[in-house]
Amino acid sequence: MATIRVLVVEDSLTVRRHLCEVLATDSALEVVGEVADGKQAIERCRALRPDVVTMDMMLPVMSGLGATEYIMAHFPTPILVVSSSTNRGELFKTYEALAAGAVDVLEKPQGAEADGVWERQFIATVKLVSRIRVMTHLRARLGALGQPQIASRPAALAAPPFRRQEFEIVAIGASTGGPAAILEILRALPSPFPLPVLFVLHINEPFAAAFAEWLDGQTGTPVSYAREGDMVSATAGRVTMAPPDSHLVLRNGRFHLTSEPARHSCRPSVDTLFESVAREYGPTAIACLLTGMGRDGAAGLLEVRRAGGLTIAQDEETSIVYGMPREAVSMGGVERQLSLTQIGPALSTLAAPRTELLRR
């Protein structure tokens, strides 16, 4: 079996050496290069064509974000962001990198751990990331390198007509590749959007804390974390995210946050949200399952469909990881498969009856 070739990008010599030493402990991994700034990262990635790039965000000469955007626009490579979660500016750059096509994020080590937990997680994540298919990311901003801006993508083809029905809520679930997918969908929604929009995103906990705030600044729709006891109906026109380490459940028209055991190793769980949406809203619910690894959300999507709701899965072509959607399709829980660029416009169309009602 061929080794996984890794390029390490980190400006701290101490951290860079540690990353390389950890990677060297696994015979399936090979460090083919190590660099200390974003411009070198681009040059070495172009020359070496590694299987994975580990990317710090705060780099000299060119930031990790700038390097990520350029790499994803010119020679797409699976990028694992290895960065700090304690610096607010670095957190926001990490979210930007995920939106630009980086596929996962891991907190930077605070030094060698006696139990080796971080080291094992790092190796496992690099191996996982190496198997992910990446695509040229047209959103990259290239002006910093004097390159012409990439033209915006052509308008998405309209989805075939849906059944006519009035809906009351939209629930979304995503994992790997989810930050970029959710951002794409929310940017396509009209403001104000007439229905409550809820979502669960699997993202490493240290990086989940400020994601809703960052997303709020990227879209025309307010985004916040769910709060215990709030009325769901009062969030129409807003987007609500399940907070870190809590399942989001809807009961009697209110949000409830629970610390029940993780499902599919995930808390919050997409299945938990979708199942409660099916119970509470039945045929007036829309549930969308986006890119992600594993099977979380597939059973819940089936419950929404059985309750008469409309179920949508992101298609294989536009999914970074076609794992969760594939599982949902195989279980019979998907009514429609749409490309990522079709989902936002489709939700706008499906919400149109409620929009017209509000205008009267």
Average per-residue pLDDT, rounded, comes to 89
What does the main sheet amount to?
A: 7 strands, parallel
Please bin the fraction of helical residues. Answer: 25-40%
Straight-line distance between termini = 65 Å
Walkthrough of the structure:
By secondary structure, the protein is α/β, with parallel strands linked by helices. The chain has two domains: 141 residues, Rossmann fold; 191 residues, 3-Layer(aba) Sandwich (Rossmann fold), CATH 3.40.50.180. Helices cover 35% and strands 18% of the residues. It contains twelve helices and 14 strands. A seven-stranded parallel beta sheet has the order 8-9-7-6-12-13-14, with helices on both faces. It has a five-stranded parallel beta sheet with strand order 2-1-3-4-5, with helices on both faces. α1 links the parallel β1 and β2. α3 runs parallel beside α4 and α6 packs across α11. The longest helix has 14 residues. The radius of gyration is 21 Å and the shape is elongated. About 5% of the residues have low confidence.
Summarize the structure.
The protein has 360 residues and is an alpha/beta fold. 35% of the residues lie in helices and 18% in strands.
List keywords for this structure.
12 helices; 2 domains; elongated; five-stranded parallel beta sheet; alpha/beta; Rossmann fold; 360 residues; seven-stranded parallel beta sheet
Blueprint of the fold:
Elements: E1 4-9, H1 13-24, E2 29-35, H2 38-48, E3 52-55, H3 64-74, E4 79-83, H4 88-99, E5 104-107, H5 117-130, E6 169-174, H6 178-188, E7 197-201, H7 211-218, E8 223-225, E9 239-241, E10 247-251, E11 254-258, H8 270-281, E12 285-289, H9 298-306, E13 310-314, H10 324-331, E14 336-338, H11 340-350, H12 352-359
Parallel strand pairs: 1-2, 1-3, 3-4, 4-5, 6-7, 6-12, 7-9, 8-9, 12-13, 13-14
Antiparallel strand pairs: 10-11
